[in-house]
Amino acid sequence: xxxxxxxxxxxxxxxxxxxxxxxxxxxxxxxxxxxxxxxxxxxxxxxxxxxxxxxxxxxxxxxxxxxxxxxxxxxxxxxxxxxxxxxxxxxxxxxxxxxxxxxxxxxxxxxxxxxxxxxxxxxxxxxxxxxxxxxxxxxxxxxxxxxxxxxxxxxxxxxxxxxxxxxxxxxxxxxxxx
Length: 178
Fold this sequence. Notes:
This protein is of the alpha+beta class. The protein has helices at 3-10, 27-31, 54-62, 83-107, 149-155; strands at residues 14-19, 66-75, 109-115, 139-141, 166-176. The protein has one domain (3-176). 30% of the residues lie in helices and 21% in strands. The chain has a five-stranded mixed β-sheet with strand order 1-2-5-3-4, with helices on both faces. Helix 1 (3-10) runs antiparallel to helix 4. The longest helix is centred in the middle third of the chain and has 25 residues, at 83-107.
């Protein structure tokens, strides 16, 4: 399966293959997912504390071999005014990411999907009262896993920068060998 070609065909603006060893993580970044910094803290299985300890979440990445890093880019966006456009781009990004992850699950073993902001498949999430309702499809949070997005994009030779008038949503899908 040519995952990069498939991702481009689905509509991602930027695509790069990545090895799990090239994913840059930071304990400090994972710790920044806390109740003072994020409204999703304590509300779902893909965010702390439901996602587990830093050591456990590192295992999610280390147990895979390779995958793909993708971006949905939207230009002409005012970061302070265009919340509707930003949400629209985020929803489009996650729909594309789910489509790519589903195709990869048909081909590869042990696929894990990561996105900006974590999972929003169930509303409300079953956390903490019951197990995840869709563990095979859920979107893990890049931040909760301590993924340093800019450094990981750099490792994959993928452009990533905060720019006035441009918003970028990043996703990553990793898998084990077939």
